[in-house]
Amino acid sequence: MKIAETSLPGVLLLSPAMYQDKRGVFCETWNKKVFSEAGLPENWVQDNCSYSARNVVRGIHYQIIQPQAKLVRAAHGTVLDVAVDLRRSSPSFGRHFAVELSAENGHMLYIPVGFGHGFAALTEDAGLAYKVTDYYCPAGERTIVWNDPDLAIAWSVSEDDAILSAKDIEGKRLRDAELFL
After folding, report:
1. Could you tell me if 31 and 54 are in contact, meaning their C-beta atoms sit under 8 angstroms apart?
2. Which position among 117, 130, 135, 136 bears the catalytic label?
3. What is the block-wise mean pLDDT of the chain (181 residues), using blocks of 10 residues?
4. List of domains in the chain
């Protein structure tokens, strides 16, 4: 597995070896030994998956109570996956990193505690699978509005075409949100 730094300290792009033949593809998406040697979490407590239609935008989500690190991959289709630094004390506060994750490229994004996460489905349907290091805590969940102009994220989905949940429509601007120190 290749592990590469991104433009945001702590956010890593992981590229597992993919073995393909006429039957399909095999890849290893998590290995305790490899993660331990790389200094990444080994104690994942929950696996999640979501399925989205084209132009669905989810996020930018994070938890103030029981914050979670995430390991995100596309199990089906393609998404634009985004991590946003929400640590006020960080030199990269308010900056984001975006990458296309697809079943075909096999890339995964490691997002540490202190970052928000969002994605946009770029194919007819997309399935996202991700591990988290703490349990979901509804009381601690927060949302930054996906199209906050202060973040200037190029989502590859227009505001007119974006399909959003009520929670995502009502997200706060970065400047008004409860964030990490």
Report:
1. no
2. 130
3. 94 91 87 88 92 97 97 97 97 98 96 98 97 96 97 96 97 97 92
4. 2-176 (2.60.120.10)
